[in-house]
Write a structure and sequence with these properties.
alpha+beta, about 120 residues, 3 helices, S16 Ribosomal Protein, Chain: A, about 35% helix, 2 domains, 5-stranded mixed sheet
Length: about 120
């Protein structure tokens, strides 16, 4: 059985509150889980100690049983010192989108066309 440690959303509309749970990967996000391991309240300030609460003993138990944390939970574990830091690379983040690429190509073509007559006149 593929195990995950992930967030289950609670709270009302526009007021999220998450439970950190150990669950079967096939279960829905807010569906059945095996154990609640902690909480996460994104509305609290980042330096608040109540923002992320984890029962690290139980988290370590589930990790030893083969549970895989999701990206967000892995960051919580890194901050708590329960997991080694991993380097992340978002190679597509700095790359412009399709529309920006098209605009850059059109601008380059326009500038090349504008510079071509000026270069011919300078060479004569």
């Amino acid at each position: 059985m593929a195990m995950k440690i992930r967030l289950a959303r609670g709270g009302s509309k526009k007021r999220p509150h998450y439970a950190v749970v150990a669950t079967d990967a096939r279960m829905p996000r807010d569906g059945r889980f095996l154990e609640k391991l902690g909480t996460y309240n994104p509305l609290l300030p980042k330096d608040s100690e109540d923002r992320v609460k984890l029962n690290l003993e139980r988290v370590q138990y589930w990790l030893s049983q083969g549970a895989q944390p999701t990206d967000r939970v892995a960051r919580f574990l890194e901050a708590a010192g329960a997991a080694p830091k991993t380097e992340r690379k978002n190679l597509k983040k700095g790359e412009p989108g399709k529309a920006a690429k098209d605009r850059a190509e059109k601008r380059a073509a326009r500038e090349a066309a504008a510079n071509a007559p000026a270069e011919e006149a300078a060479s004569e």
